[in-house]
Design brief:
By secondary structure, the protein is an alpha+beta fold. It folds into two domains: 113 residues, LysM domain (Membrane-bound Lytic Murein Transglycosylase D, Chain A, Roll); 92 residues, Barwin-like endoglucanases (Beta Barrel), CATH 2.40.40. It contains six helices and eleven strands. Strands 6-10-7-9-8-11 form a six-stranded mixed beta barrel. Helix 1 crosses helix 2.
């Protein structure tokens, strides 16, 4: 499909742990499988699967036999590595660059939202799930003296209104873009997006190719004339305020042509 290279500029800090033994498992590739989906299902990296099976590319085929966690990888390192968040990073970008699922990255770092800030240190290798305690349920306050409720009934609504204003200020960014269309069923196309989505096996997905410096990968985006889609792919010609919408039919993709439309980043 489209080649996607993520370059992270901050330096990862390593701390050495203990080596463990990996057990051998044979896996038969199923229709719709990708190296990404297989690696995530078996809690290994894409590079580890490729190395164990002498694969020089990410192409795999149904009924192909793959060794997962074979004796060739008996010394699987449990080194723990951390990554320092740089300006412009997103959790999705960091997870993808380190061959992790978004859920695994969030679990290793005890993250429940999607907010990260430059300078934060995230565990990106050799981590373990961190349970995040639930906020205790607030108990009803003890009944106040007779005069206290009168003061609360005046001041409380003003304080409660502040979060609503903050939420309104965080509304999605809108922009005008030049939009073209592409299909996964073309000569030489693998059908797999930059984020590992198999569009040939799932042709009803709404996916757009974007410039990650303008629209972060993984964002949910409303696209005029197309609907709500996931920013899940990239392309060499997709730079700046340009997008490429995925359309299963090659004829329909050609009919789309090139349009100037409005979009809105939802999250």
């Amino acid at each position: 499909m489209k080649k996607h290279i993520v370059t992270l500029t901050a330096i990862a800090a390593l701390s050495v742990g203990v080596a463990s033994q990996a057990s051998a498992e044979s896996y038969t590739v199923q229709p719709g499988d990708t190296l990404w989906s297989i690696s995530q299902a078996n809690n290994v990296s894409v590079e580890q699967v490729k190395g164990q099976n002498d694969l020089s590319s990410n192409l795999i085929f149904p009924q192909q036999q793959l060794e997962i966690g074979s004796e060739q990888a008996a010394a699987v390192s449990e080194e723990k590595a951390t990554y320092t968040v740089a300006s412009g990073d997103t959790l999705f970008k960091i997870a993808q660059a380190h061959n992790l699922s978004l859920d695994t990255l969030m679990s290793w770092n005890g993250i429940t939202g999607h907010w990260i800030f430059p300078g934060d240190k995230l565990v990106v290798k050799g981590g373990s799930p961190i349970s995040v305690p639930k906020a205790p349920k607030e108990e009803a306050p003890a009944q106040a003296p007779a005069k206290a409720p009168a003061q609360a009934s005046v001041k409380a609504p003003a304080k409660a209104a502040a979060p609503a204003k903050a939420a309104s200020a965080q509304s999605g960014k809108e922009m005008t873009v030049s939009a073209t269309a592409y299909t996964a069923f073309c000569a030489g196309c693998s059908g797999v997006t930059a984020t590992g989505q198999d569009l040939r096996s799932n042709p009803n997905q709404k996916v757009i190719a974007v410039d990650p410096t303008v629209i972060p990968l993984g964002s949910k985006v409303w696209v005029e004339g197309y609907g709500t889609a996931i920013a899940g792919d990239t392309g060499g010609a997709i730079k700046g305020n340009k997008i490429d919408v995925f359309i299963p039919s090659q004829g329909a993709a050609l009919d789309w042509g090139r349009k100037t439309i409005n979009i809105k980043i939802l999250d």
